[in-house]
Amino acid sequence: MVLRTFDSILDECLLSMQHGDSLDACLDRYPSHADRLRPLLALADKVRRTPSNLPRPWQQATAWHRVKQRADELRAPPPGVRVQLPFAAWLRPVAITAAVLAAFFGVTGGTALAAQNSLPDSPLYRVKLATEEVRLLFVFDDTREAEILIDQSNERMDEILTLARQDKPIPGNVLSALRNRNERTANILADHPEQADLLTTFAQQSESQEGRLILLFPDVSRSAYDDYTETVAAVHNARLPGADRLVGIQPEELSAGVSQISGVAQQVGAGLWTVGGVEVRVDQTTIGASELQPGTTARFVVGKNSRGQLRALTSTIVQTSVPPSDSVVSGEIEQVTDKGIVIGGQFIPITADTIRTGKLKAGQKVQVKLGKSEAGVVASTVRPAPAPATSEASGQLTFEGVIEGDVSTANDEWKIGGLTFQITPNTDVDAQGGAAKDGARVVVEASPEEDELLAHSVTVLASGADKNVAFVIGTFEKSSNGVWRIGGIELVPPERMEEPQPGTLLALDLRRRGRDLEVQSTTVIEGPDDPSLVRLSGAISKIDGAFWTLDFGTVRVASTADFSGPEPEVGVRALVWGKQNQSAVFEATFARVLDDNPVITTPTPSPDEDDGE
Predict the structure, then answer these.
(1) Which of 333, 301, 166 is nearest to 235 (CA)?
(2) Based on CB atoms within 10 Å of each CB, which residue in 105, 218, 409, 427 is the most buried?
(3) Whole-number Å distance between alpha carbons of 526 and 523
(4) Separation CA 493–CA 484 (nearest Å)
């Protein structure tokens, strides 16, 4: 069971009312919280319906100048006068606050009140930030100011997540505001090392914010990218010890993107490591570096600079005795509840830390990346599924082949199976199955764009490598002069091979001959008129007859299912397409085993696994 905080429930209700739900509908969903929710939601609805009274820019500027001027006057003691009123000393902040707030609200009218619920894409957002600054003008205790700044920083993160859930790009103003609050908090706490509890709270919040910002990288607007890199660097540096914070990560070191890479780590020089064969700079600014030992398997969050060099922000040791927590589920949402979603008959919990893009609703096709928490397997991200192929655009491609050439130093292109893939700013590399090197077999998830193949992820397989053998899963688009176009690449079929219908999802065994990829065999995974199958990817943690256990749950792979690849065994990774059958069991229609050898050393299924129940 995933517990929900009242704040998260309130946020969800506010968002659903913005999308047209009634107040009563929200209360019906949470009857145990109805008494607390009713007055807050009623007030929010009243404010939302109140017409905005936005002052002219020159009026706002004048008002803000008057507020700051009056605050300075009230905070400064009269020259040449010394007053000793110990009993009334506490009245001064109250009088100052009342006087300045009266001046501020007197000029701005109801605009400041209306701005309190505004989001970063609203013209009123500047007013909201200004009112927060007015409040801080009258805080004379450093500890209290740090507490308020931490709360404001947390509110900025909530605003960012709200924009993501509304499928809106993240603008620079909220990122710079978050960075500003964190930097001011860090400066205050640097002078107050005795505030252990507050330091711990700030460190935990910064850790959470950094993780969320990394996952939100695809949602940042292009115009806000400089603000994004500066904010990620600032949030990261706030987590460092005092001396290391002075060195810190620089925004330029993130200028070409942020991604993840995992694999066996080996030190090759002072501050230089290879992770799965790829060079990464690791130093005192890498959080978790102190636990890193040569030969351990680790997952790194890395930034790439304009020269293509990688620098590690964080390092986490990977337990190779348990299944990797990076399984992916793609399919249609069957049901949405306040605790999660149902896909393929399987319930997937959604927590407060889940990154969601857009409003979730039944019938929507999504791609869910799974992760592990104290509550078990949960959704770490939920995004719209890749667009299917059409007559005008190619769909996503899954390609298996051998790396050609040296990829140890970061670059923007990898040649795999005779095809050139662009390594984008957010391409994730999983090298837990072996080093990413010349001759290693990999599987690439990619999509074509403007005659280029953009790699979303590259996974090194624990598999034998025949450079002339390849495999692809993609949607048939068309044929021309005896050449098939599938997923944006051209393939040569044998003569007299029956041509599939456009829109058919195919699995094809390929062989390289010169510059051509020749089709050896085809399997239809899904017809163009029935795109309802769910796709799973992940490691097999248990096999019981025809039943495989993955992070998603239990899957039945009967003899009637189409099968491809090496023999299945515990610890290998697989791709599965299927759906729930009439007996409420997830039934595979196609399965592809990726690894020859296990990538999990001693798999241990989770004690609460219940075969998909």
Answers:
(1) 301
(2) 427
(3) 9
(4) 7
Strand duo 258-269 + 272-275: pairing:
antiparallel
Which of 555, 554, 576 shows the shortest CA–CA distance to 565? 576
Strand 586-593 to 573-580 pairing: antiparallel
Between CA 75 and CA 100 the distance in angstroms is: 11
CA atoms of 324 and 541, how far apart (whole Å): 10
Task: Say what angle helices 225-238 and 172-190 make with each other, to 10 degrees.
Answer: 20
Residue-wise pLDDT tens digits, 221-255:
888 999 999 999 999 998 988 766 667 899 999 99
Q: Is the pLDDT of residue 60 over 70?
A: no
For the chain, give the percent of residues with pLDDT over 90: 59
Residue type, 13: C
Q: What percent of the chain has pLDDT over 70?
A: 82
DSSP assignment letter at 417: T
User: Nearest 5°: CA angle at 291, between 286 and 296?
Assistant: 105
Q: How far is CA 299 from the centre of its chain?
A: 15
CB 552 within 8 A of CB 345: no
pTM comes to 0.77
Burial class (CB in 10 A: 0-12, 13-18, 19+), 5: exposed
Asked if 281 and 275 touch (Cβ cutoff 8 Å), the reply is no
Give me the amino acid identity at 360. Answer: L
User: What is the C-alpha to C-alpha distance for residues 96 and 73, in angstroms, rounded to an integer?
Assistant: 10
What pLDDT does 137 receive?
83
**What is the Cα–Cα distance from 24 to 34, expressed in whole angstroms?**
9
Positive or negative: CA dihedral 378, 383, 386, 387: positive
Distance between CA atoms of 340 and 493, rounded to whole angstroms?
44
Residue-wise DSSP of 251-272:
GGGGTT-EEEEEEEEEEEETTE
> Which pLDDT score, from 0 to 100, does residue 219 have?
85
Helices and strands per DSSP (H, E), number in the chain: 12, 27
Q: How many whole angstroms separate alpha carbon 287 and alpha carbon 81?
A: 53
CA dist 367 and 356 (Å) reads: 10
d(CA 550, CA 568): 13
Q: Which of 485, 491, 501 is nearest to 521 (CA)?
A: 491
The tokens 């990898």 sit on which residue?
414
Question: What are the tokens at 334?
Answer: 């069957």
Q: Please give the C-alpha separations between residue 61 and each of 55, 107, 111, 138, 284, in angstroms, as whole numbers.
A: 10, 11, 14, 20, 44
Backbone phi and psi for residue 192, each to the nearest 5 degrees, phi listed first: -135, 65
- CA–CA gap between residue 396 and residue 535 (Å, rounded): 13
**Separation CA 403–CA 463 (nearest Å):** 13
Please compute the mean of the pLDDT values over residues 403-429 and round it to a whole number.
Answer: 90
